[in-house]
Amino acid sequence: MNPDSKSTETVIPGMGELARLFLFIGLTSFGGGITAYIRRLVVTEKRWLTDEEFLPGLGLVQLLPGANVAGLAVYIGNHLKGPLGSAVALFCLFVPPFVTTCALGFLYFHAGRTEDASAILTGVTAAACGLMASMVFESGQKAIKGVFDVFLILLTFALVRFAHLHVPIVILIVAPLALWWHRPRKVATKEVS
Amino acid sequence: MNRILLQLAGLFSALSLSAFGGGKVVLPSMHQAAVGEYHWMTSQQFVDLFSISMAAPGPSMMVVTLVGLKACMPYGTVAAILGALVATFAMFVPSSVLVYFAGNWWDHWKESPWRHAVMDAIMPISTGLILAATWIISKTSIHTVPTAILGVIALLLMLFTKINPVLMMAAAGAISWVFLS
């Protein structure tokens, strides 16, 4: 992808460097787009991984459940330093946001919803709604390959919104249907492991 | 107290392993459990906590930390921090363990045509779940014409510019503070 990172040698960092970078990421990553930010730091700037090593990891964490950022920390940590590297990267990623988030939480519940806080939060939340809605559009653009995908989106929405089912149950209901529809068709099914 | 910690651990580890497409897709379940089933907080508080977590540093699903914090807050400060720890751990560790072990089999998967099939199947489901999450957050927070306008402007900015979402949320907070209070 990036010409800079293609032919150059990668560097293996020490455990301390790995810890420092993920502490830094935890402290400086805001809102969405964190995976692109991690790629820039780890592949382009630090040259710890090539794109050929990073992108399959990104594909893996997008495929599996869970927060993509946490999964990437585990993948990168393991790639560079083995199991301990995974644990260190994941732990360091969460220490700074955990501390700041708890501090903000105490502030919110102890100060109460004052008029000022209320006004600010009203604006922030309205913008957050816009941000979430934009994700629906972006994700929908990638998801919709035919009319059936629109049906799957609406079915999923309806099961959560109107049937009030929990997300794991909704997935158990819709996933078999979606998998059946998107099953590999042109390829001989015998080679499926 | 112990019962709440167990509920937090059970709820968030289940959601951790079903968050296909990222943490946001389980937001509707989190809302339903925290507000409707366990009565840890009001819907307004949940949405406020979600906004705080979006504007604070770290992965956006840090709202789970705040849900854990609030759930145990009646039992004191130490209990609240313990609740936050349990919730955060339960949300992020199970899926991470899965990534760690699946990484070892990933090379075999790469050859399988099912990899694309699974990806194509997951995308519409995550989209539907994010739509449901957006609906729930909007329903609680967009009540007036000015908030609706702010929301629509935010949506358009996110779709058509490369503005940093946190800057945008900070600006929206400032605008709302100056003009709407």
Query: Largest beta sheet of chain A, briefly?
Result: none
**Percent of sequence in beta strands of chain A:** under 5%
Structural class category of chain B: mainly alpha
Distance between the termini of chain A: 30 Å
Number of helices of chain A: 7
Q: Specify the helix fraction band of chain B.
A: over 70%
Strand content of chain B: under 5%
Quaternary form? heterodimer
Number of domains of chain A: 2
DSSP helix fraction of chain A = over 70%
Round the mean pLDDT of chain B to the nearest integer and report it.
Answer: 90
Radius of gyration of chain B: 18 Å
Number of separate structural domains of chain B: 1
Global geometry of chain B = globular
Total beta strands of chain A: 0
- Provide the structure class of chain A: mainly alpha
Number of strands of chain B: 0
Strand-helix topology:
The complex is a heterodimer of chains A (193) and B (181).
Chain A: H1 15-28, H2 34-45, H3 51-63, H4 68-111, H5 115-143, H6 147-161, H7 167-181
Chain B: H1 2-16, H2 27-37, H3 43-55, H4 63-72, H5 77-109, H6 114-141, H7 145-160, H8 165-179
Helix pairs in contact in B: 1-4, 1-5, 4-5, 7-8
What does this structure look like?
- The complex is a heterodimer of chains A (193) and B (181).
- With 193 residues, chain A is mainly alpha-helical.
- Chain A has 2 domains: 1-112, no CATH class; 144-193, no CATH class.
- Chain A has helices at 15-28, 34-45, 51-63, 68-111, 115-143, 147-161, 167-181.
- The longest helix of chain A is centred in the middle third of the chain and has 44 residues, at 68-111.
- Chain A starts with 14 loop residues before the first helix and ends in a 12-residue tail after the last helix.
- Mean pLDDT of chain A is 86; it is low at 1-7 and 188-193.
- Chain B is mainly alpha-helical and 181 residues long.
- Chain B has one domain (2-141).
- Chain B is built from 8 helices and no strands.
- In chain B, helix 1 runs parallel beside helix 5.
- Classes of the chains: A mainly alpha (193), B mainly alpha (181).
- Chains A and B meet through helix 1, helix 3, helix 4, helix 5 and helix 6 of A and helix 1, helix 2, helix 3, helix 4 and helix 5 of B.
